[in-house]
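subagent[fold] <- orchestrator: predict structure for attached chain, return tokens only, no commentary.
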Amino acid sequence: MQDKRYIICGNAPTDGIEENPDRDLRLRLWGKDGLDKITLRIEDIHKKMSKDVPDSFQDLLEIATYVYSADQAIPRGADDVDSFGHGWRRDLHFIIPVRKPDFWNGDDIHQALRSTLGFLSDDNYHFEFVKLKEAQAFQGYLKFDDDGRLFGYPEQVVMFSGGLDSLAGAIDEVLNEKHKVVLVTHKSTPKLNTRHRRLEKMIADKAGENAPLHIGVRVNKNKGLNYEYTQRSRSFLYVSIGATIAKMLNLKSVRFYENGVISLNLPVCAQVVGGRATRTTHPRVIRGFQEIISLVAGEPFTIENPYIWKTKAGVIEVITKAGCQDMIAASTTCTHTWEMTNHHTHCGTCSQCIDRRFAMIAAKADQHDPVEAYKADIFTQSRSKDEDKIMAAAYLERANQVRDQDDITQFIARFSEVSRVFRYLNGNPGSVAQKVYDLYKRHAKEVCDAMDTMVGRNITAIRQRTLPGDCLLRTVYESGSVISVPAIPVEQKQPDNYFRKRGGVWAARFNGNAEVLVTGVDKGAEYINFLLARPNKETSVYEIVCGFAIDSCNAVLNSNETDEGFQVTQGVPLGDTGFVADRKAVEQYRETAHELLREIEEARAENNDAEIQRLENEMTQITAAINEAVGLGGKLRKSNDKRKNIRDAFRSAVNRAITYLDKYDKPLAAHLKESIKCGNEPVYRTEEEIVWEVRPIVNE
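subagent[fold] -> orchestrator:
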């Protein structure tokens, strides 16, 4: 963790603090312009709405503005995985003048702020609230647009970012449910203004007399205060704005719209673990926001995410089914807004762009999302940065891994991070766990189906290798080993019977029939290949499985080898990428353990024995996950259950591969089903002698 940083806000005194300009930051919301001046502006407000805003909500909005501004002004010390623990987290000490210091220094609100913000942005927060002197009137933050119309009787405040999810939410509320809605937008960059206005007009044109009211909020500051791009605390400012506007309208709820895969924050790869991935609408954050706003309001206040059980493709279907597909091109999903140009509104390399494109294809709506709007096409163009290559490949690999989980127990054991959300969602843990599992299985299927679609569309270019070697389609097709290709193709007669790897894809041929490409069942194909290479030789299933685990390790260590006389394509092997990400993800397990320890300390301070026991149980699960990860390719499991699991997993993998083959070559599938016997000592045994070519082709 970084050293302590003080953020001195407004006219707060600094008694007992030796100010250090190299360490500390000053911010203020009023007074003369200067390097430390922040401008908060709520636009398109009607005068009737600004009456009787409680002091506690005015304080809330100012606190959130200071937190958001400090988040941008104080850079994180490192963004690499190796320095993640020390350099990423900041130790932030705020001194903030408020109208109601006794309330804000209370234990309940203090603890809710520290806990929620700490999880949201992955930092340590400390707050000291002092009495505000010479407070600015709240109307000073407002820009009135009083045309004599107060929008009727609004029923709901909806946070509207202009992305696909919030767009679908607005369409649901305004067009499908016919609700009177206020859409609140935090205008974080002027680059999005035109696109926001276009969406506003398109929604209004569809809604007619039920057109929503749009309220925009800006936070402007000196460019010298823009160092950190992650802006993890932005959603705290966002919800504080929405809650304050809801209070102006005498409403008691705010709605975010975000798909569940993004909200639940299951790490895509080691590059986006923990707070490195957005937690804007994580169930724990939503629960924390609700607690904070309820304390500020002095009564129950609801923060909702109605899309928690939707995938991104499901969100897109809401838009298309409502006949609003023309709005898709005007929406903005990219997190790298600083790269945005008039021609390229999306970078095509960040996790959000990747998620968007896969979902568009899965929802069969990509014709409404011009590929020209992406600086880099996710599927067919080269990626210059290694982290971009890994991000795209690992995104797909995670979908493959989830798809291969046969039941909910395997899923939770493989992705233990997701179990931390169960207690923050409504329902008993069993039913919630099932919903989470179903959500990710749907998402995995959508991603894999989208990938299959794109491979089909580009199969000729893939086969002819006219696409860049490190584009995602080539990465998938040629994953698993370094691909060496000769400068001049060589014609060669193919054997009648082969089951072998060519590049990163399994290819099979039986009795001289047409070749079959075997995809999506790699593990089973590996096992079949092993058995065909050793006819009539029984081998321990545990030796086979352990051997392949060791091979996975070797693939990582031996990558980027070059054979003399051949050209090597610079791809990111998909199988290896997943393995490397798993190994690096141990760092996240450790950080999760640290979070659990902090939560245990809080529970002990409250003498909450039941919570301590539950957290210790979670720590046990994390420890088991760490031990399993670092044991890859090494130690045998001695318990009977583990041995049975290995046998069952081996049999299932082989059967899945044979089932796949049955769709394309029934004689081959029937032969393998009859000739391969699984059990403690699997074997391939056949009455007639068949010679199989099983050696991989890497020089084709």
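orchestrator: received. Logging for downstream: Residues 76 and 88 are 5 Å apart (CA to CA). Residues 488-570+634-684 form one domain.
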